What we know:
- By secondary structure, the chain is α+β, with helices and mostly antiparallel strands.
- It is built from eleven helices and ten strands.
- The protein has one domain (4-301).
- The protein has helices at 4-17, 43-60, 75-85, 92-111, 115-124, 132-136, 139-149, 161-172, 214-217, 226-231, 246-252; strands at 31-34, 63-65, 128-129, 178-182, 188-194, 235-238, 242-243, 258-268, 273-283, 288-296.
- Residues 1-30 have low confidence and may be disordered.
Amino acid sequence: MRSPMTLRAKALLAIALAVVGMLAAWRLWPIATSTPSPTPPNSAHEDLTRAAAAFLAKRAASITPIESATAFQSPAALDSVAPDLAQAGLTPADARAALAHAAAMMYLRYARQDFDAYTAWRRESGYDFFPADRLRKDPVYRNAIERGAGRALRDDEQDTSDLWRLYWTNAIEPGPRFTGVDQSPDGTILLAWKSTESLALPKATPARRGPRSPIMSIEPDTPGSRVGLWRGATIALGWPVWFPPPDVEAHLLRPGTPFIEVGWVLRTETGGVQPFILILAMDTRTRRWWILQFAVPHAENRVRINAGGI
């Protein structure tokens, strides 16, 4: 995976050069792509690319309609992560809570795509849409949100609720929903780990490093790896627009924070099949989970999705 600062620079370049055009018709959120293909290409990487494509094709055959948030909560995925929990300082109850939190977000944002219900869930869960003072300090996000909302952040504006409403109407509502998910044992992946480095950047900035998750950091020359199959040839890492309270976020960015990465194989209402991943961090003081990042593996498939609003 590229270094954190390179990822940040790549996010700027992505918006300018439409790197995220492969993901959606809108270029309205910062995102960074990583394609660590070896140079020159080697047979192991080529084997992994072929195996990952075959894995995704097989998973597509098992997709069923999404009828509730429980469609995103696979008991088999919980069983598969059990051996890794203790090393991350987690329990089976923690893993169930992480999966339930992620499932609620996915269902309200992507299956129901319900502005009122999703906004209420976010706020009741303790998140804030991009605070105005923080937005002013981040030109990449400010440009993305203002473009999505269709208007600029006013100099005296402190409440970003109206920007969020406009952003949803203009940039999110027109996008395709997820209508199906692979609920078979291999259709969801859960990975648990503990961070070993701070995710806070050294300068005074609202940005943060992307966590070195197993799927993000997998080497491309690992043919047959379960994690490698989920990663595919290219992966895109995105930064959310909803934030935990500042004191909680500062705690989450410290070394030693437990993380859970959860991914699903999904179908959009336009027929595309795409894995999608949420990366959650636990506040060990309260044992509450918070969505910190998202990722789109197999981005080389160019499936049209809308990653805004997470």
